[in-house]
Design brief:
By secondary structure, the protein is an alpha+beta fold. It folds into 2 domains: 67 residues, SH3 type barrels (Roll); 189 residues, Tetratricopeptide repeat domain (Serine Threonine Protein Phosphatase 5, Tetratricopeptide repeat, Alpha Horseshoe), CATH 1.25.40.10. It has 12 helices and 5 strands. It has a 5-stranded antiparallel β-sheet with strand order 4-3-2-1-5, with helices on one face. The radius of gyration is 21 Å and the shape is elongated.
Length: 263
Amino acid sequence: MSRQNLTIVCMISLLMTGAVFGQVQGTIINTDGKPFPGLLKWKSQTKAYTVSANNMDMEIPLASVADIQIAKPKDLENAEKQIASGNSIVAIPLLEKVSKEYFMLKWDKPAIRLLAEAYLKAGETDKALKICDNIILADATSGYLGEIAPMYWQILLKLNRTAKVEELVLKAIKSGDRSASAFALIMRGDLVLATGDTADNANKALRDGYLRVVLLYKSEKDAMPEALYKAGKCFEKTGQSARAEQMRTELKKDFSTSPWAQK
């Protein structure tokens, strides 16, 4: 057998036994609170992590992982700086690199969220969907919990897959996670407005979504700026200018550095 054919056979064998997407130094904390430091690898077929330390390997199933501690990649920090400077196009290759090298290793999700947003801004909705689908295939909870979920819903909504969005939003609310619930309520408002930008829909979006977050989820600082901004827009649509100004004032006062406040 030629060397080239042998290489191909080895690659196929690796894929059949569970491809390793990345390996980095870090610590896995299991659901009992016990730390396992070492070289971490994710294996797709078994949906488990391998921790290599002291010439020994230990496999930890995804379901038994409470947290993963890994230093933040420099490429991600650089990408964030580029995005903050308005250079999303420059950030894309950095984010693509992190999303591959850290697949299922903590920093993939922040990178994928930013990358999906950059793809959307560039009009590449299919690429945004694909990169989110890849991580959700490995970890189904990413579709309704955590930082990727709200971006994923926006992509699906843009593609008119409203039934799928409604299914995931319901899962987020039923999960009991307050952050997920807050973003799910915001998406409920978005779903209402997607059917028509009318005063009646603005009232319904306030009642079923944005205003609930503003009044009941003040502790969820990540969700509040978006809820305040969109509530303000709905109050404007319904002719309630004083309430709209109240939303804008709170947004600028409490979340002045948020992109929603810049709008």
